[in-house]
TrEMBL record:
<dbReference type="InterPro" id="IPR004561">
    <property type="entry name" value="IsoChor_synthase"/>
</dbReference>
<feature type="domain" description="Chorismate-utilising enzyme C-terminal">
    <location>
        <begin position="158"/>
        <end position="409"/>
    </location>
</feature>
<dbReference type="GO" id="GO:0008909">
    <property type="term" value="F:isochorismate synthase activity"/>
</dbReference>
<keyword id="KW-0413">Isomerase</keyword>
<protein>
    <recommendedName>
        <fullName>isochorismate synthase</fullName>
        <ecNumber>5.4.4.2</ecNumber>
    </recommendedName>
</protein>
<dbReference type="Pfam" id="PF00425">
    <property type="entry name" value="Chorismate_bind"/>
</dbReference>
<dbReference type="InterPro" id="IPR005801">
    <property type="entry name" value="ADC_synthase"/>
</dbReference>
<dbReference type="InterPro" id="IPR015890">
    <property type="entry name" value="Chorismate_C"/>
</dbReference>
<comment type="similarity">
    <text>Belongs to the isochorismate synthase family.</text>
</comment>
Length: 419
């Protein structure tokens, strides 16, 4: 028996009701209360939530399977009235899973507000009776973060460059092809963080990323590990990065060079293969584009490939969460071969990744959902915030350039926390 199985609560009957609402032009993030906010927003669409009707915490190698079994039981016993019936309406849980076998959680909120184009809805979820939808109001403005002081986390920049060199040596010695190494920074704030402030900034500045907050983990990730929507799956694979200069013409030339760079194309190919291989057993057909496109973000550009598939209806364990479990950790955050890369990360990285680079997102009662990779992210507790960034290392990676790349990847969260 696993840790989580012993802690599994007995079957409870959740009652959920979804009704349409008119949100006008109110942004989802403006509805969030200061405490207990959950968020998943992209380009104005998504779901935000608050309150907590149920939760499961899981750890260890079975953290995904235990959470998935719990969710099946909860949804199997639930009473759901859903007049909207789109992915994300009805019963939903938000979740965040650790990169390694440590603490992970699924949270069933008590109120969820969603938007999908012109359609908006509110869902109430309770333990016993039908609850009428609350009147939705724009909440008090968040308190902006003040006085952030940034310092090295577990390792200095120079120290990290030296472990990048160790990794390239291992790759050149033929031990593996690619490993993703990460580092952390610490920010100390003058007052406890009101996480809504960075969420507002991230959702505004990075509209083509998924801005999220689950249980103290927040960020704006450009990488979709897996989206499942009515039998269709999609995974956006990123690997291969170039920093932006702020000069548009120069950036376009850099984008063209990125799309031709054999180092970046090689690194990218490893990541695409790892995703396609993991999705294949659950799909009846798949589309893996032959060449990547360049994804432009305000701070960096990435080589990107959208892998798509049709879920095999006979495949049982193919909810969005099951697929995320099969995909994690992809070569975008682990490496190739996976086991050798994870072992090298354990040996070289002097920190616990926590929930950085793990799956973060949501699942509904049909098994549809979206799980991003928690990148461009941070974990906070009171006044202390830990920011993370990592880079894919291949044989000819240059440690100094990788450090600069990691700094560019820290920009979204740094800016979101600065005065
Ligand atoms: C690991 C991170 O990013 C990943 C690594 C990339 C790379 O090395 O080119 C690009 C995108 C992500 O898949 C991160 O942002 O922390």
């Amino acid at each position: 028996m696993t840790d989580a199985a012993t802690a599994l609560p007995g079957p409870r009957t959740l009652v959920a009701q979804t009704v349409r609402v008119e949100l006008g032009d109110v942004a989802l993030e403006h509805l969030l209360p200061r405490q207990g906010a959950l968020a998943w927003i992209r380009d104005g669409d998504g779901i935000v939530a608050w309150g907590e009707t149920a939760r499961i915490e899981t750890t260890g190698p079975n953290r995904f399977a235990d959470a998935s079994a719990w969710w099946r039981r909860m949804t199997g016993h639930a009473v759901v009235r859903d007049s909207v019936d789109v992915p994300g309406s009805g019963l939903v849980a938000f979740g965040s899973f650790a990169f390694g076998p440590s603490s992970s959680a699924l949270i069933v909120p008590s109120v969820v507000v969603g938007r999908r184009g012109d359609l908006a809805w509110v869902t109430t979820i309770s333990d016993s009776a039908l609850v009428t939808a609350p009147t939705l109001r724009v909440t008090d403005p968040p308190t902006p973060p003040r006085g952030a002081v940034f310092s090295d986390g577990s390792i200095s920049g120079a120290g990290w460059e030296s472990i990048v060199s160790d990794a390239t040596a291992a790759i050149r010695a033929g031990e593996l092809d690619k490993v993703v190494l990460a580092r952390d920074l610490v920010a100390d704030l003058a007052e406890p963080l009101d996480v809504r402030a960075p969420l507002h900034r991230l959702a505004g500045a990075y509209p083509n990323c998924w801005t999220f907050h689950v249980d103290g983990l927040f960020g704006a990730t450009p990488e979709m590990l897996v989206r499942r929507e009515r039998g269709l799956v999609m995974s956006r694979v990123l690997a291969g990065t170039i920093r932006r200069t702020g000069d548009d013409e120069h950036d376009l030339a850099l984008a063209a060079s990125l799309a031709r760079s054999s180092k970046d194309l090689e690194e990218h190919e490893y990541a695409v293969r790892s995703v396609a291989d993991a999705l294949e057993p659950s799909c009846s057909s798949m589309n893996v584009p032959e060449a990547p496109f360049v994804l432009h973000l305000p701070n960096v550009m990435h080589l990107a490939t959208d892998v798509a598939g049709v879920v095999d209806p006979d495949h049982e364990a193919a909810s969005a969460l099951d697929l995320a479990a099969a995909l994690h950790p992809s070569a975008a955050v682990g490496g190739t071969p996976r086991a050798v890369a994870l072992d090298l990360i354990d040996r070289l990285e002097p920190m616990d990744r926590g929930r950085y680079a793990g799956p973060v997102g949501w699942i509904d009662a049909d098994g549809d959902g979206e799980w991003g990779i928690a990148l461009r992210s941070a974990e906070y507790d009171g006044t202390r915030v830990r920011l993370f960034a990592g880079c894919g290392i291949v044989a000819d990676s240059d440690p100094e350039a990788e450090l600069a790349e990691s700094q560019a990847k820290l920009v979204p969260i740094r800016d979101a926390l600065s005065d």
